[in-house]
Amino acid sequence: MSTYLQSLAGGFLIGTSAVMLLLLNGRIAGISGIVGRLAQGVGLTTNLAFVLGLLLGPFTYLLLFGGWPAVQITAGWPLIIVAGLLVGCGSRMGSGCTSGHGVLGLARLSPRSIVAVATFLTAGIIAVAILRGLGL
After folding, report:
1. DSSP 3-state assignment of 76?
2. Which is nearest to 27 in space by CA: 80, 103, 91, 88?
3. CA 48, CA 39: separation in Å to the nearest integer?
4. Which pLDDT score, from 0 to 100, does residue 75 have?
5. HSE of 117 in the Cβ direction (CA atoms, 13 Å)?
6. CA-CA distances (angstroms) from residue 28 to 9, 22, 24, 40, 107?
7. Mapping DSSP to helix (H, G, I), strand (E, B) and coil, where does residue 95 land?
8. Residues 42-67, mean pLDDT to the nearest whole number
9. What is the mean pLDDT of residues 44-67?
10. How far apart are CA 60 and CA 92, in angstroms?
11. Within 13 Å of residue 37, how many CA atoms lie on the same side as its CB?
């Protein structure tokens, strides 16, 4: 049951931070956009605080629950690196990532976000089917 409570708490924190950023700064909490603006030196204070919050999240988890969450990654590093690069390219091509489109875009009933999330999910399903078909 604790996994459900931890997931609920994490979802609550993501939603709360996304809503706060939108209400207080008028910005969508899309991680690819935040990191992109940070790399360009735009909005350093807010963007840096948001990214630091993301990086400190696992350490906060460690303090609250006394250990790291169980994570099992079965893919090799080459596949992980290729997947990361494809996700990064896709988020730039799609003008946003799953956090911006999926969390706030869907909540705002944005047509562009609805199409983007449907595309993310479809691409993910196809990728898993292909990789399983290849035995990877």
Report:
1. coil
2. 103
3. 10
4. 84
5. 16
6. 21, 6, 11, 17, 11
7. coil
8. 88
9. 88
10. 30
11. 19
